[in-house]
Amino acid sequence: MSSDEQDRRKTLTVKKTARDAHAAERGSKRTRSGARARSAAQMELAREKAQRRTAEPAAPPVTQPRPRPRPQPEPAAEEYAEQPAVRRRQPRAAREAETFEAFAPCPQGLEAALTAEMQALGFADARAGRAGCHFSADWAGMQRANLYSRLATRILLQVAHAEISHEDDILDLARSVPWERWFGAEQTLRVDTSAIKSPVQSLHYCNLRAKDGICDRLRELEGERPSIDTVRPDARVHLFLTGHTATLYLDTSGESLFKRGWRLDKGEAPLRENLAAGMLALAGWDPAAPLLDPFCGSGTILIEAAWIALGVPAGISRPFGFERLRGHDARRWHDLKDDARARILPSLDAPLVGYDLDPMAIEYARNNAERAWLTADTIRFEVGDARQVPAPAEHGWIVTNPPYGERLPADDDDLWRTWSTHLKREFAGWQVHAISSDRDLPQRLRLKPLRRTPLYNGALDCRLFGFELVAASYRERPDPAL
């Protein structure tokens, strides 16, 4: 190779390439790749920011916002279109429960006691009426009244009230009530009518007018009339007439509330359960105190007392009419009963004792107590003579339904005299409360009553006599009757 060729080759080795010449023309530096390139780019970006800060005027300091979560990549348009729009449900404003005027009938003489019971159950506006109690309640309150009331016979919700001038006005009144809310043509119906000082000529005709009004409305709306069932209907309606007014009630109880569901063996001349509970209320019996019934019969008074002391609701073991009506919320009703069962006490501290001369009556009482889920440890029933039974404690209550009328033995005068002597000797310090249709019972017992409360035992006009056997006033002196 000549010297000229060698010089030309050396010159070509130091000459810039076309790529280098293009970069020089743009005034940019040689590009890098990889980690060194990223590091150089970050340094260059930092220098540019510093230069901008020095060139711009200083700004007042600002509070740095909270760091936001890293945004997620947006879905494709197709995916976004398929997702339904999510709406936030606004809380619904609470609706005020519908309130009804209600009436709870009871045996005559228990009106004040029933009013006090209803007020204790939370019905603050309860007020005594004729043979019952008026109060207001919503549907849940109506269920609670049915479950817990011991003195009421029924719980009736008022659905219509108007003045009438003729029996046919009852038809129009009955047609105006929205009965379809509670029952329809597929259910059975019974209508009962009662009146006080009403000028109507025939209660039977008034009952037919009310029944026709109800059935005509349901036939127009549902195409069929409900069937009539007077024994076990699905729905009961009561028409009450007084003066020139008519009131229609929806019966929510079904069978009378005094039917607790545990009494099958009744014995002779039994008390109704709500009357027995009313006697305990009027006597002022303390559920923590001993109780004796020396004429216990089938055990109604003592079983009612046991349920009161244990806190067992009166209607816990029986069905109700509202359970067969439209719209019944079975779950809420079961929750109410479960809450009531959870509050029942397991046992009693004070003794409850019953005696009767009739062994069959004692057998009935034990059977009834067993159906009421009461054990022999809760109530002790024994065959015994009231004139000889011992006192189970130093102090307590005697609440009883002694024999009167046809139940009295031939030696009734001897019965009362001997029983009175036994009470004075063995039960000083006790209170005695006895119901009787015999107005002369205090004279027969030679005891002065502190109270005599009028009560009706069915159709019998009775009195609940209350006596207090003062301690040490009889034990130290002989009875003048002996």
UniProtKB/TrEMBL annotation:
Superkingdom assignment: Bacteria
Composition skew (Pro residues), residue ranges: 58-74
Keywords: Methyltransferase, RNA-binding, Transferase
GO molecular function ontology, one term from the record: rRNA (guanine-N7-)-methyltransferase activity
Disordered: region residues: 1-94
Gene3D superfamilies reported in the protein's UniProt record: 3.30.2130.30, Vaccinia Virus protein VP39
Residue stretches making up the THUMP domain: 141-252
Keyword Methyltransferase: yes
UniProt biased composition (Basic and acidic residues): 1-10, 17-28, 45-55
Pfam families, A to Z: RlmL_1st, THUMP, UPF0020
SMART domains the UniProt entry points to: THUMP
PANTHER family: RIBOSOMAL RNA LARGE SUBUNIT METHYLTRANSFERASE K/L (PTHR47313), RIBOSOMAL RNA LARGE SUBUNIT METHYLTRANSFERASE K_L (PTHR47313:SF1)
Protein name per UniProt: THUMP domain-containing protein
Species annotation: Bordetella petrii (strain ATCC BAA-461 / DSM 12804 / CCUG 43448 / CIP 107267 / Se-1111R)
Organism lineage: Bacteria, Pseudomonadati, Pseudomonadota, Betaproteobacteria, Burkholderiales
